[in-house]
Amino acid sequence: MKNDLNLNLKSLQPQLKKALKVMAKHAVFAAVIIVLLVYVFVVGRINQLANAEPAPDAETVALAKSTVPRIDKSAIQQIQTLEQTNTQTQSLFDQARSNPFQE
């Protein structure tokens, strides 16, 4: 049984060498094809994810979580009274209103 196995391996050696020569000749082409396939897959996946819409359930959950901040009217009145009482603060507010991008 061992002799049969050795003979089969020895007879396969020239066939393997031939196959390796053919593969070596086309290795660059195969590598380029593999890289192109990976590239096409990645571009397709990016396109798919870019065009994906959220599920309706996720939309309702996101809308429920996002609340518009409300400012208390008494806080607004308190800020206005503080602004009116302090002249230095009043001039700062006036400057900010006239040119908001000034530092």
Please explain how this structure is put together.
The structure is a single chain. This protein folds into two domains: 2-55; 71-103, no CATH class. It is 81% helix and 0% strand. It is elongated and about 105 Å long. It has 103 residues and is mostly helical. The chain has five helices and no strands. The protein starts with a helix and ends in a 5-residue tail after the last helix.
Short synopsis of the structure:
The chain has 103 residues and is mostly helical. 81% of the residues lie in helices and 0% in strands. It has two domains: 2-55; 71-103, no CATH class.
Set down the secondary structure blueprint.
Blueprint (H helix, E strand, L loop, with lengths): L1 H24 L1 H24 L5 H10 L7 H13 L1 H12 L5
Helix pairs in contact: 4-5
